[in-house]
Amino acid sequence: MIKELNLNHTCGAGFRDTSRPPMSSRLVKCLMLKELMDNPSTKPKDIIKRFKTYYGVDLEYYFAYAGRNLAMTEIYGDAAKSYSKLIWYTEALKKSNPGSHTMDLFLEVGGSAVKKFLNGAPSKHWANALFGGNRYGELFSTLAECFNSWIREERAFPITFLVDSIRVKIMNMMTAHRELCRTWSSYLCPNMENILTKKINLGRS
């Protein structure tokens, strides 16, 4: 028989914060796997916002970050191990695109004369990376920042997926430019054609 009921709890359960339930990175992975498949560029901060919006949970950054990494590993494989696949990727690319590599084409066209030159000349005389002098007067990061922005979504991929995604983007860009060139009425692009026309008219005046 219960003689007295004390409603004041002193155990930890009585003070549990319902906005921060027990959490694990594996649970985050399971809940975010589908979204990361559709949008690999999803960041940990996006996951935190999603948990707050859909589940009313204040997810800690650590669990969002670790859960995202687990999901990306399950989707694309281990990021560190993916570097070992670059050799296979390079060989597969050469087989599927014969004659598309600049150096190979250079050697094929130049023949023995080019091979003799490259074998006999020190690398520092023809390889920009090994040149001993001052290669650049000024350095700017604008181009790197522009490229980084261009591959904003692809940056989340492991290295082999990243490289292949860049290849596809370049191919699509070249195709778009080629189709645009077919609309030109001369060998020059419209901007250069306008400049040339202005110079010719100026010379006649």
List the helices and strands and how they pair.
Blueprint: H1 25-38, H2 44-55, H3 61-76, H4 85-96, H5 102-120, H6 142-150, H7 159-181, H8 190-204
Helix pairs in contact: 1-3, 2-3
Shape: elongated
Structural class: mainly alpha
Number of strands: 0
Number of helical runs? 8
List its salient traits.
205 residues; mainly alpha; 8 helices; elongated
Question: Would you kindly provide a written description of the structure presented here, covering whatever features stand out?
Answer:
This protein is mainly α and about 200 residues long. The protein folds into three domains: about 25-75; about 80-135, no CATH class; about 155-205. Helices cover about 60% and strands about 0% of the residues. The chain has helices at about 25-40, 45-55, 60-75, 85-95, 100-120, 140-150, 160-180, 190-205. Helix 1 packs across helix 3 (about 60-75) and helix 2 crosses helix 3 (about 60-75). The protein is elongated, with a radius of gyration of 29 Å. The model has no long low-confidence stretch (mean pLDDT about 80).
Give a nutshell description of this structure.
This protein has 205 residues and is an all-alpha fold. It has helices spanning 25-38, 44-55, 61-76, 85-96, 102-120, 142-150, 159-181, 190-204.
